[in-house]
Structures are given as structure tokens and as C-alpha cells.
Automatic annotation (TrEMBL), chain A:
Protein name per the record: Peptide ABC transporter ATP-binding protein
Record's bilayer topology term: Peripheral membrane protein
Family matches, as NCBIfam families: oligo_HPY
Record has Transport as a keyword: yes
One GO CC term, this protein: plasma membrane
UniProtKB/TrEMBL annotation, chain B:
Any single Pfam family the record assigns to this protein: BPD_transp_1
Keywords recorded for this protein, A-Z: Cell membrane, Membrane, Transmembrane, Transmembrane helix, Transport
Species: Streptomyces filipinensis
Topology within the bilayer: Multi-pass membrane protein
Region listing for Disordered, in residue ranges: 1-37
The UniProt record lists the keyword Lipid metabolism: no
Family: Belongs to the binding-protein-dependent transport system permease family.
Any one Gene Ontology BP term: transmembrane transport
Protein name: ABC transporter permease
Transmembrane segments: 51-71, 131-157, 169-191, 197-222, 308-328
Upper taxonomic lineage: Bacteria, Bacillati, Actinomycetota, Actinomycetes, Kitasatosporales
Domain ABC transmembrane type-1: 127-329
Domain of life where this protein originates: Bacteria
UniProtKB/TrEMBL annotation, chain E:
Protein name: ABC transporter permease
Keywords attached to this entry: Cell membrane, Membrane, Transmembrane, Transmembrane helix, Transport
Lineage: Bacteria, Bacillati, Actinomycetota, Actinomycetes, Kitasatosporales
Organism (species): Streptomyces filipinensis
GO biological-process terms attached to the record: transmembrane transport
Pfam families according to UniProt: BPD_transp_1 (PF00528), BPD_transp_1_N (PF19300)
Amino acid sequence: MSTPFLSLRDLKVHFSTEDGIVKAVDGLSFDLEKGKTLGIVGESGSGKSVTNMAILGLHDPRNTTMDGEILLEGKELISASESELEKLRGNKMSMIFQDALASLSPYHTIGAQIAETYRKHTGASKKEARARAIEMLRRVGIPQPDVRVDDYPHQFSGGMRQRAMIAMALVCDPELLIADEPTTALDVTVQAQIMDLLKDLQQEFGTAIIFITHDLGVIADIADDVLVMYGGRCVERGTKKQVLSAPEHPYTLGLLNSMPSLDGPVDVPLSPIPGSPPSLLNPPSGCRFHPRCAFAEKVTDGRCSSERPKLEVAEGRGSACHLTVEQKRELFSDYAATRHN
Amino acid sequence: MTPATPSSAAPLEVTKEDSATSAKPGNPKGTESRSPGRLAWTRFKRDRTGVISAITVILFFVVGIAAPLIAKVYGKDPYTTYGMNIPGLFNEFNYPLKPNGGISSDFWFGIEPQLGRDVFTFLLYGIRNSLLIATAAALMTTLLGVVIGITAGYLGGKTDYFVGRVIDILLAFPQTLFFIAFWPVVMAIFVKPTDGTPVWLTVTSLILVMTAFGWASIARLLRGEVLALREREFVEAAKVTGASPARIIFKELLPNLWTPILIQATLLLPTYVTAEAGLAFLGVGLTDPTPDWGVMIQNGAKVYQDDITFMLFPGVAMVIFVVAFNLLGDSVRDALDPKTKR
Amino acid sequence: SSGGGGGNGTPSAGATSYTGAKVTIGTKADSTGPAPEIPGAKKGGTIYGLAPDDFSHLDPQRIYYAYNSTIALLLHRCLTGYKIDSSGHQKLVGDLATDTGTASKDNKTWTFTLKEGLKWEDGSELTVEDVRHGIERLWAPFVTESATYAQLALTGKGAKWRDAYEGPYKGKHLDAIVTDKAKRTITFHLAEPKPDFNFTLAMHSYAATPVKLDTKEKYDKAPVSAGPYKIKAHSIDKSMVLTRNKNWDPATDSIRNAYPDGFEFLFGVETLDSTDRLIADQGNDQYAVSIYKGVPAERIQKVLTDPQLKKRTFNGLLTGTYFYWINTKRVTDLKVRQALIHAWPLQQIRQIYGGPSAGDLASSILSPDIIGYEKSDVYGKLTKPAGDPEKAKALLKEAGKEGVKVVYAFPQDPTYLKTKVVIENALKAAGFTPVMKPVDSTSYYDQIQQINNSYDVMWGGWSPDWPTAYTMIEPLFDGAAIGNGQNNVSQTDISWINDAIKKTAVIADQTEAGKAWAALDKKIMTEVAPIIPETFTRRFYVYGSKVGGAQFDPNFSATLLYKTFVKA
Amino acid sequence: MSNTNPLLDVSGLTKHFPIKGGFPIRRTVGAVQAVDGLDFQVAEGESLGLVGESGCGKSTTGRLITRLLEPTGGKITYRGQDITHADRKGLAPIRSEIQMIFQDPYASLNPRQTVGKIISGPMEINGINPEGGREKRVRELLEIVGLNPEHYNRFPHEFSGGQRQRIGVARALALEPKLIVADEPVSALDVSIQAQVVNLLQKVQRELGIAFVFIAHDLAVVRHFSQRVAVMYLGKIVEIADRDDLYDNPRHPYTRALLSAVPEATVDAEPRERIRLVGDVPSPINPPSGCRFRTRCWKATEKCATEAPPLVQAEGNKPGHLTACHYPETADTVPAPRLSKDPEAAA
Amino acid sequence: MLRFLIRRTLGAAVILLIISALVFVLFYAAPRDPARLACGKVCTPETLALVKKNLGIDHSLPVQYWDWLKGLFVGRDYASFGHCDAPCLGYSFQNREPVLGTIEDRFPTTISLALGSALVFLVFGVGTGMLAAVKQGKALDKIASSASLIASSMQIYVIGVLATYLLVDQWHLMDRANYTPFTDDPGKWFTGLLVPWLVLSLIFTANYTRMTRSQMVESLSEDYVRTARAKGLSRRKVFFRFAWRGAMGPIITIFGLDLGTLLGGAIITESTFSLQGIGKLSVKAVNTNDLPMLLGVILVAAAAIVVFNIIVDAVYALIDPRVRLA
Ligand SMILES: Nc1ncnc2c1ncn2[C@@H]1O[C@H](COP(=O)(O)OP(=O)(O)OP(=O)(O)O)[C@@H](O)[C@H]1O
Ligand SMILES: Nc1ncnc2c1ncn2[C@@H]1O[C@H](COP(=O)(O)OP(=O)(O)OP(=O)(O)O)[C@@H](O)[C@H]1O
Ligand SMILES: [Mg+2]
Ligand SMILES: [Mg+2]
């Protein structure tokens, strides 16, 4: 196998705050190929955004320590200089942020913000860049792009803003696109529009996409591979089908079970995951999920609370859990039964 | 019986040192409760600049409050014209004979040129009076601004409109000019022509006038804060349960406004200390026989060429105080509101 | 001129030999120009004048305050004037007039003859009509600030003098003044005898104003000069530039030298600031003088202890006396008034003013530059200047008024707030119950000049309008001068004083008169004790290093501008 | 159907927010027609779900029912009592009976009050003195909502989002209400936590017999929680029906589109028909004439532009299933076309 | 925009009207008589009445105010000054000059002082503030912050005299404070105002340093700044084009208000340096009970504040496209 397009090796991102060290990402690895979409799911605070901001090198070096490797086409990014990163950002790799209103400068027109990126990386003239901006807006489905190009973000609706964000991220035809919960704040109808758009664009350009969300439904819609994060670590990964229909980690299973569906039974209570997400300041020892895990006592010697489970990945499939395969098969099927009657 | 709950004024504790013992009883089974005020206090304690500034500021207040006591121990008062009464202290021009402004074991900070009062006690009393005025004015300004601002913000409608216009007018006033122009008016209202102007009256009117002009900006700020807070869901939650406007203002809104209020108050105090000095320069406020920090500096500025010492003590003290208080203000702000870093 | 408005009396000084100017009456020869040359003086250059305020009036008829007179000396000319020698002695001489005038036996008719060659700045001739016009203008409704001595003397109607004449602008002249254009004479027919009327006419209120060039109200901004300089530019409250008046003939003027080609006055420079500028002595400040304000107390030490600096100073006593009025209608007991005088801490007060150099202690009403001044010290204040609380206590006891409440009023001004401290201490020590009452300094005189005011002792001062005692004793102690806005603040209405004033005022020989006034001074102090004399204030002036001829104007307590010159 | 004696009866409910402007004197120049003539009932113990896109007026409806807002028109009747324009005093007796749960678990709790105070506050205001004292009752409530009663003295910031939402529920329960308006109570929560709260609410509804107006934009959650569901679009109810009716047999095109846009976390199930709506909800300041959905509807005709469809029981509907559409969908309608993405067409 | 301006101007006019009425009432509430001061040393009741008539204050208070107001629009005739053209602010009691003329004469000084020092404190304040924001937490940040704080806690009348003594008199580094019109001699204008500029800006600089720093720190943490970085823009560009743009608003607001206040006269500074501006004029008007002048300067000062309020709002709308003027 040749070197993967993007590869993270044991990434650690720690923040020093006045309350102590926040281990936001604590040993994360994954690979991503071109033209593929990796969906990252996880609860709020599980380190999804931190991971991806780390790829772009956007963390403030004053309070952040990064460890491990981030390789983009074999090139190490953690140790890369700021000017090297500047050349990559917005060009080879770009990012769509969750809150489009806050993430777009309120002081500049949409067009200017898109054109600026283009000019920076291609050295195009103002006129060319503007034409490019209009073209991008048209491509993401903004009506009357030649007029709206001179609007300010606050004049756009939520969905249009998100599309403008996408246009901005794609203006230099990046090879890697990171979409950080691009649809979470949007209505389902708009969300569907955006996801269609992303899929189309990927088909057209073969972009590698990292799609962050905490909604498994969205993952099911868009991703090829899925990575489930919990407390700054990857607890499970595999193809969409593998993860969603045969989860190997109790957390993934819990997530799936706790989701109400449009066609399931309605009179039984949902099966939530008890407890609340872990603190990253004082994370639980061993497996970070063990305080909420329904099967923790099934593992002998209290290993769940003392020993960090390894993430064994074989052919892109793996999970970090002390339960044996047999145990899982047995225990999980019960739960699965309660889900689909 | 309702259990002891931290009072709504809890955040105020951050400025007091003796709050460390509160909140311990009534905390069942070690579930330690950390009120927002307590958290701020913890943050504040960690801030070295803040603590040093706080100590400095407290020192000034202690010195001011204890001025009569200190003067007694020291054995002098700020009114006696020692330089004139005791031969050998002054030269023929009424400047201290000894170098460095006449500093000696008797007169620690020297003696005042011309009148010959003791600089040390005079400074103590000056600090006392200035701090009294500034503190009282800052408190009253804040109080008035808070009450008006919150009321206008919460009630909205006509009240808000009216208050808003009054604020507009007040803020359009050239304030210093107004002070100097209408100070005599204020005094004339209160003093019978046959009576001397008692010092307390000067002080009171100064406080009143400063308050009258100062409240507007605080009120405006708080009005804005209330407008924002009013939309918060917990206010609606209170409304849904039938809470009266008074209850909402005092129990729901006010506790959440302590942060801006405290910040404003800490900004106000040093401003008032210097403003009071500036006004004294323009002839408004306390005048010479009553010890006043600002008047002292101003007199010092006149004689500095011959006796720099006399300007140095009050001047340096003022710089230290204002700087310390501003730094303290910053620290308080950081502690209360850690997100917005200065 | 009188005690100045409000609280600007901060004096300062230093021990020198100067003890007040002698005043004499000059002869016709003294009145004949040109003025004697000053050794070393040369023509040319510009002298700069610094002052906190602009002149409030330039129209001579509206000039009364001494400060305005300092410029009036350069622009306006009266029938008489004072010729001042280098030691500060003054002589009354004829200015426009050939001499100091001729009085009739009864002192009710005064005749003056104009010199020849007198011209206005436009070259037109200055005639007796212009002199008369200047006096008639005093009746114009816009002239409200002038001295009133001549008006009173000419009409004899007292305060109703305005009713006697409707002013010059309705075509009529004042009957009491007769002019003869051909003979160049002007004759005043007074309603009452005035042996010192020629002193009165030296006041700038009585300067000549050209009939043809009179612009009425507007004249105040642009007067026509008859003096050695004329106004070239005037930016009100900021600056004023004077240039030579080519039509002024030195031969007609025995008083004024005019060496500089011009003057430039800069207004709005506070006293401390101007003093520092003069001390620093840089640029144009080397050619600068302070027009009116002396060195403030804060800089006296610096100025007097630096020998280089001290060389650049002159000083003089102010014309008047500073004292404290005792309201005799409220403090009716003579013993209490005497106790007050005994208790008063003169020395401490002067210390605050700046020590011995700030002035001489006063013990009488009249000041040293008054004709006939005699030192008298009825209450031994000069031997016990710090106050004699024992004696005061004893007197109070005698009067049975121990612990009596005394309300002391003073202008709210840094200096008097300081003297208040020592006065309060002294009064307490002497067994009084003092009430200290600061009064807004801008309206201080208004308030104490209300006859029904509620003050017992009031700070104040008085300067004579010319150096005879009449102008001190009459306004201060004549029963007729009691009234709102009048100067008999002590409210003494005692027949023997009133009579003595009337009698003494008509003594023709000013030396004789002087003696009589001095005796009256002593008698008033002894038997009535209506004031507490405080100081004869001394003022120091610094001037730039390139200024020559700077000397004190004993008459207006200022820099004598027309004697200055630019050093080569 | 319990329409005979509903707990809450809303008819023609309207709320227009005035827009100020004009020159030189400010006046009202227009209105945001946030809610425009709603009719629905809530029976005792029943849960009515209210779904719709952002800005369609769901929250406004909730706030009108709880009388946080003054209705512009229409009528709100609670247990036969007209409370449309009741003032604070008039509302006092029923204040304890209608309560609210809010969306934002951070903004809805006063950060300066302890949990105990937050929950006992409503009792204090309404003068309720339960047996054993308020503190005891608060501890009970905390237990009911699944929190540690010992957390009585803690401050909201010491709790996670889900826990905070439980505090909000406890506060609403403190007054033993008959009706709770829950405005997106779980939208701000993580999936894993969301289920906890939904379960809690369900428990509360069932065990205490409390009626709910459950506002949400997540159709799956609403389906799980509500017996009846109303779909709103731009200030109007476009469809209201029993749960199964609505989800299985949506008659309004908008309902259909909405249902089809929900992503499902299943990979093996055969993909549902997809309807992609284009564009955004139009502005409520100038809502489209006639049927408000027509600008995004693939079936719109002339008639839709001129005639506003009434909310009626369309042909083929079960009783109580009301639809406001001129051309309601039928079960066997061919799947709607995947709409062209030509933006111009939508604008 | 035009509507906004018209509406706000009307509002401003009302405010100024109220202020002038207030000044009138308050002025006469004091136990002082402006006529008495103008009346001179021998002030008999007859003379006093004459003076009152001359000054135009021989009527009741409301009539006086009405006369004054009318004068503003149609001019006014005085017994002793003659006609005064509209807009007539009256004649000064003190120097009997038209108030408007005097104010016009003094205004350039105040404008020069205000603008010059504003430039100085803007450049220094904002400059150090930005520097401090870049070097957050580093020594430079701390030095800049504390130095500006110390400077701002000094009193102008102290620093003013000290600066003059040292810079001018002792070391001969700068010229003595003095106003020369720019049109006369730009060089002298500059050197004459340098010391007051520096001293006056001292107290402001710290404020701007602190404000700029905090605004920059805040806006550097904005999401859209992060976006700008994610686009690959250089630090410099991110800093100036994005962060600074966001920080500008509040700074400009405060700056406008400060400038408005300064244009009403920097009273203490002008007094300390003997500069003949509006501030000094106003102190003199107070000290001489000069009602027309006082009214004039208060109105000018208030107008400056009000006008700058409007300007600030307008500028804000220009900077921030989200703000709509109503
Ligand atoms: N600059 C920072 N300093 C300190 N802590 C940080 C910083 N940035 C993020 N964190 C912490 O790191 C953890 C992970 O944050 P992250 O933003 O990656 O979560 P997320 O998975 O993206 O969550 P969400 O779904 O809410 O976006 C959180 O606990 C957050 O508080
Ligand atoms: N106080 C108000 N003043 C003016 N307009 C308002 C006000 N409150 C709401 N609106 C407007 O009314 C419309 C409906 O708002 P509402 O909050 O009810 O929507 P919603 O359905 O709850 O949306 P979301 O899902 O975003 O919460 C929106 O267009 C909103 O902008
Ligand atoms: Mg995130
Ligand atoms: Mg809502």
C-alpha cells in the first residue's frame, strides 16, 4: 500500500489552561484516501474539532502542545513552519466551520472573502478572482450569484451562508476538505441540500473529505468510513456499514440505540447511555467510557478502569474495547434486539 | 426553615478578604458547592498582580480610615502650622530650612512650604478625605445608575424612552464646565449666607454633583445589559411561574449584573479620585484648610521648583494608588469574567 | 485706584530700602517736555508685556481700574499727570496742560491752559473742546464704569449727578465747563471747593477724547491715541500690538519717554506661568515684562535668592492699605473692636503672603505714599505683630463679651483660605468664638458692601485714587459713603469724622492738609477702631534680561511701561 | 379524540411583531407575521408535537400559550377560561398549571442561583408550602428527574447539559402543572443525553398525567414523544394529525418533504424516496400570498397563489387529520420528483 | 443615511435647547449679578440699572431667554452694542465682544489642540495596544500596559508644569506652549503645540492602549479570524484586515466621544499651558459671570459632543455593514 493521502499517527493535542491540562485529543490515528469521506462522530467535547484544527495547524501555539504525526501526502505538518502551512491552508486543504455566521467576517462581502483566498493562492487578478467567486457561488447554488457576491454575510440566510462557506473552502479546489459540523445548526431540509452539494462536489473533484458530526444519521448519508470518538480518543472505526450495522464498541452501540427513528416502535422508552461525557481535565482512568459502560463489569480484573484498551485496526476496521469478540456478539445482539423489533 | 444558601450578593465577596469561612456549614456530605462568586475568588487569588494591587489599595483605605489614629500616635495634626509656630523650621520665605522639604525625625515627610503644616499627617488626611469623597461618589453613582438602568431596561417602553433621553442630555453636557459653572449654585442652595460652609456640606455636594453627572453612563450600560438579560430564558422561566417585576429585577437580574456593576465601580473610583483632584485645580470642591490629596498635589506643582519633596509624596502616592486600583480592576474583571481577557 | 476686585491681592516682597514714594506738585518747568532722558536708553525694538487678562476697557472714560491705566498711560493724556523719577518719587505736573492748573481762592474754579502742538494720532489738533468732550462723555449712558469725583464736583448733586446733564450727544454742553479755543483754556466751575481737583483730573476717566473721532460705544475697542503709541492690532483677550504714534510730539510731554518702537502684549498668561517664562528668559521673553502682576509667593524665594535673577527685578509698595473692616453696626462695643485689633495675627498673615519681603506691617489707615503720611501705632501692633491675646482677653473681659461670636468674611481664594487658618487660631486664643465665612471671590465686594450683611469682620483693602488722604478717608469713613455698593463698609457715621473730612478736604495747601489727615487717621484708629490695618503690600517684578529702564509705577502699582527700553 | 373538553383550546391565534420605521417620526410600518391564525386543542394528559423549520413560529406559539407574549388576535382558552389577554393578576391562579421547559440548558437557569433556589422559587412565588417544607419537596423533585438530591446547593454551572435540562424539568414540575410547553427541550443536547431527557419527559407525562405541547424540529423525537403532531410552516399549521397518521400518511407536500429529508442512521434499509426542497423559508414579513408553501412546492398552481387552503380534513383522511392543501398527497402518489437545483427557478 | 442625519440633527437641536434653558435657569439660581461686575467700582443703583439695560438683562428670566433664543435665529438689537446678526449668541458681558466671534476666534486653538493630541494618543495608544496584543503575555505587553497606566494616572497640571520646566526651560528641547495659527506658520504651529499635545495625550494613551489591546485580543479569538487563518492568509493580513477591522468599532466610538469632549475645550490643559482655547474661555466666562459667553461655550461644547455622537454612529454604520441606521 502506498502512503495514504492523509495520515494521523498517535496525535495528541493538549491545552494548558488555568485549571490544568486539557487532553482534548489523546492518541488518535487514522488514514484517509483521496476521494473518500471519513465521518467522525462523537459527543460534544470529544475532540472532533480540535483534531481537525490540528490538521490545519490552527491552534494557538502559546497554550497548545501537539504530539504525534500529521502526514499530508507524506509531509509532516506538526513541525511545518507557519509560512509552509499558510501555503497549504485554503489551497490544498481547507475547512468548513460549523457556525457560518460567526466564521465569516461580518466586515467584508462574501465575494471579497472568497476572492481573497483565490488571489492568495493563485495570484490571480482582482477581476479574475471576482469572476471565480461568482462562479463558486453559482456552483454551490446561490441564486443570482453575480448580485449576491457583493452582499455581506448577515444578508444571507443560514443555508446560504453555509453554502458560501463551502464555496470559500472549495475555491482553490482543495484535495482535502474538512467539514466541521456544517449542517448541525440547519433545518433538515437545508441540511439535505448541503449534503447533496458536498457529495456532488466530491464526485466531481475527487476531494478527500473529513465530515464531522454528532449525528449518526448524517454519517449514514454521506460517509464511506466512520471514526467514532470518545473523550479525545478513537473508540471505533470501520466502514459506514460496519460501524452502523455491526458496532463493536459499547459506546457506538449506545449511540445507535439512543436515537429515536422514524419507523421504530414508539411506546418503548429509548435506551440512553447513562451518565454524562467525561471531563478532559480529569479523564476516567483506563477506558474512558467505562463509567458509562453497561458491560464494564463483564470484563474481569476491573481492566476497564485500569487499562487503556488498544485500538486494534485490521483493514480499516477496529475498536478499542476490552470485551472479547464473543462477549460482544452475545451481549450486543440482545441490545440490537430491543432496537429493531 | 430554608437552608442557608449563598446570598445573591455572593460575587461581592471577591473584594473582601474575610469570606473564606462562609458556605462551609450547610454543605451536605462533602458535595462542595462552588458558587460563581467563589470561583471568581479562587481565580482572583491566583492572580499575583491582582493580589498585590488589592493589598496596596486596601492599605490606602486603611491608612485613610486610620488617619486620626496614626496622627495621634505620630503626635501631629494636619492643621497646626508648625513651620510658622516653631522657629528654625522656615527660612524667611517660608520654605523649609532643612533639605528635602524639611524631612526630619519630627516631620517624616517634611513640612509644607508657606503654611508649615506637617506633610505626613496632611497627606494621611488628604487621602482620607479624597477617598471618602471618591468612594461615596462611586458608590452613589453606581447605585443610582444601577437602579435607573435596570428599571429602564426592564420596564422598557415609555420609561425607557424617557430615561434614555435624560441620559442623552446628561451625556451631552460638558461636564467639567458644568461643574465649575454651577458649583456656586449648589453651594448657594444649601448654605445660608451668614454661615460658614461646613466641610461636610462641601463634601456632600461634591458627592451629589459627581453622582448627578456620573450615573448616566452606568445606567446606559446596565440598561443594555438588562435588555440582553431580559431575553434570557431564565427570566422567562421566572415570568412563567408568575414572578413579579420586582422579584425578577432583584432576584433574577440583579445577581447577574454584579459583574458589570463591580467592573464599573472599580473603573469609577480611580476616575473619581483624579477627577476630584482636577476639580480642585479648577477651584471646585475642598479648599485648602481641609486636607485634600488633589489640592496638595496642585500646591506641590506650584512650588516644585524650590521644594520638589512636597510634590513628590502626594504625587507618587496618587500614582501608586491609581495604578494599583486600575490593576485591581483588571484583575477583578478577569476573575469575574474569565472569557474576555483584557 | 481702589483695592482691586476680588481676591487678587496676593502680595509678595522682600526687604529693600524703598519706603513709599514722595509726592509733590511740580512747576510749569517740570511740566514742559520732553521727559528727561534715561541714561543708557536707546530707541528701537519691541517690549513684550505679559498679563493674565486683557485690558477690560480702552475708552479712557471707562477706565478706572489701575490695570487699565497701565495702557492708558501710553495712549491717553489728561490735563495733569504724574512725572516719576528713577527713585519712584512722583510730581504732579501738567500733561496736556502747561502746568497743574490755577485754582480760585475758594478752590471752586479751576483753569487750565493747553500746551501747543498737541495732536491726535490722525494728525488733527487736540483742542480744549476735546478735553471738555472727554468729561462730558461721562454722562453717556454707556459709560458706567468711570470715577465720579469730577461729576460730583461739577454738579454738586451727589449720586444724582446724571440727572444734571443729558450727555454730549444731544448737542448740549455742560454749563460748568467753559472753554476758550483761542486761548486754549478750559475752566471748571465746581459746585463745591476742591483744592486737589488737579489731582482728580489726572485720572484717566478725565482724559481728552476727540469730538470728531468719537465712536461712542465702539470707542472702547478702538480709542484714538494722543500718547506716544497707538493700537495697531488687538485680538481681544489674546494679544495687542502698539506702534509709535508719529503725531505725538515728545516736546509736548514731560512725563513719557518712548524708547521702544512698539509694544506687544500677550494676554491669558497666568501669573505663575509668566513668572516662569521671565525667569527662563528665552526668546522674546528676554524682552518681556509682566505688565501688572508681581512675582507670586511661590517664586519669591527663587527670585530673591538667585543673585543673577534678583538683578532682573524691581519692587514697590502698593499704593493702598490692606486691612479688615469691622462692622461697627454689628460690633458696637469699642473694646471688642480694640480686642480684635490686638488679637489679629499680622505677622502670621504676612508669613503666608511671603514673609517680610511681601510687605510692611500696617498700623494706620493711610499708606506711606499718601501726602502727609505719618507712622502711628496706636495698638502697638508693630511691637507685637503676632497678636496680643492677653490684652485682647482683658479688653473682652472688661466689655463683658468673653466668647463673643465673630463672623469673619473673606474671599474664597487659596491665599485667604490660608490666612483664615491663622486668624481662626488667633481669635480662639484671644477668647473669641470665630465663625469663618468664605465668600465667592467674584462677588466678594458686592456681598460685603451690602449694608445689611451679616459679617463682623471683613477682609479688604483700599487704594487712593490720587495720593492725597481724602481719597482714602472719605470713601472709607464718611457717613455719606454708607450704602449698598459703597465703601464705608465699617458703616461709621460719626459726626466728628464727617465734619473733619469736610473741613480738611478744603485745605488748599496739600502739605497742611496732609498733616491734618494724618491726625484724623490716628484719632479714628484710637477712638473708633473701625478697621484692623494689616499690610502695605510689596510687589516684586521680574523682567527679561534685555529690558532696560524697568521700574515700578507707584501710582498704578505696575511696570512703568513708558520708561522701558530695549537694551542693546 | 378528546376534543369534547380540551384542556387548552387555541383558535385563530395570531401574533404580529410590529416593525418600527418611518420618517421623520417613527411608527409601525409593518409586521413580522410570526404566527398567523392557529387552531388546535390539547387534551388533558395528551402530548401535542409541534414541528417545523426554523423561524416558522413554533417558539412564538409556545410563548403565546404561556402568555409570555400578548397575542395580536385569536383566543386562548384554558379549561374553559379565556386567558387571551389576562394580566399578571388574572393569570395568577393558572400560572402554576401551565409551565414551560426551555431549549437552552445554559440560558434557562439563573447562573447565580443554586439548584435548590431555582426549583423552590416557583413554589415561593405561588405560595405553595408542601408538606415537609419546600426543601424536602425540592429533594423529591430532584430525585424524580434523576438527580442527586444532595446537589441541592450546587450551582448550574456545575452540571452538564443533560443534568441542567433535568433541573429545568424539575422546576416546571415544582408547581404540579397540568400543561407543560416544552420548547425544543432536547435540541441542544447530545444524542446520548437527548434520549435520557426524552425518557424523563415521557415518564413525567405518563406518570403524572401532564399534557405537553412539545416543540421540536427533530421529527423522530416528536414521533417518539407525541400522540398528536402539528406541522407548521411560516406561521400556519399546514397539517395536524395523530402520530401514525401523520408519519405514515402525510398529506401535505411540506410534511412529506420534511419527513424525507430526515437522515436515518441505517445503511441496510432501502433508501427512502427523497424530496429535496430548494431555497429557504420566505420572510414572515412578506409571506407569499395564498398558500405560504407554494414558493417551494412542486405542485403549486395559480390557485395556490390566490387562495389560501383551509385546514380541513382532506379527502381520505382519518378523523382529526387535518391538512391545509389544495392538492393533498395521496398514499400512492408517485414519489415526488427530485427537484432541479436550478436556483433561479426557486428565487 | 440622510434620514438618519436629519432625524439625529433634530434630536440634537432639542438636546441643545434643553441644555441652554437649563444653563439659563441655573445661572440665575446663583447669588450673583453679572451687571454688578460690569458696573465698575462706583456702582450706584442708578448705574446698575443702566448697566442692566446696556447688557440686555433688564427683563424677567423667560423674556431674557426668549430674547436670546430669538437672537439665534433673527438677530438682536442691544441698547449699547447695536445690532447683532443672526445667529446671535449675544455679547459678552465681560469684554463686550460678540460671543460668536470670540468663540470662532478661539476654536482653532482648541481644534488644533484636540486634533493634534488625538493623533498622538491614537498613534501611540493604538500602536502600543496592538503591539501588546501581538505580544500577549510577553514582557513587552506588560511594560506597555503598565507604562501607559502610570502615565495616565498623572495629573495634567503637574505633568504640564514639569514638562514645561524640563523640556522647555531646562533642556531647551521644545518650544514653550503657544498657539500660532497654522495658516500663519505651520512650523510654529507645530512646535508651539507639541508640549501640550504630548501632555494631553498622556492621559488618553493608556486608555487606548488598554482598549485596543483588549479589543484586539477579543477579536483575535473570533471565529472569522480563525477562518481567515484557515484560508491561508498571512498573519499580518489576518491581523490588520480581519482582527483590527473587528476591534476598530468600539475604539472609534470612544475616540469620537473623546474628540467631541476635547473639542468642547480641554479646560485643565488649556489653563495649564495658557492656551487661549474654548476651555480657557469657558473658565473665564465662569469666573466673570459672563452668561452669554458661558451659554456660548456650553452650547459649543455640547454641540461638539452631540455632533460627534452622530458622527460616531454614522461611521460605525460605515465600518460595520451589519449596523443599519434608523
Ligand atoms: N483552546 C482550547 N483551550 C482549552 N481547551 C480547549 C481548547 N479548544 C478546545 N478545548 C477543549 O477540548 C475539548 C474538545 O473540544 P472540541 O471542540 O474538539 O469538541 P468537539 O468534539 O468538536 O465538540 P462539539 O461537537 O461540541 O463541536 C473540549 O472539552 C474543549 O473544551
Ligand atoms: N420579539 C420578536 N420581535 C420580532 N420578531 C420576532 C420576535 N420573536 C420572534 N420573531 C420572529 O418571528 C418568527 C417566528 O419566530 P419563532 O422564534 O417563533 O420561530 P421558531 O419556529 O421557534 O424557530 P426556531 O426553530 O429557530 O426556534 C421569526 O421570523 C422571528 O424572527
Ligand atoms: Mg466542534
Ligand atoms: Mg424556537
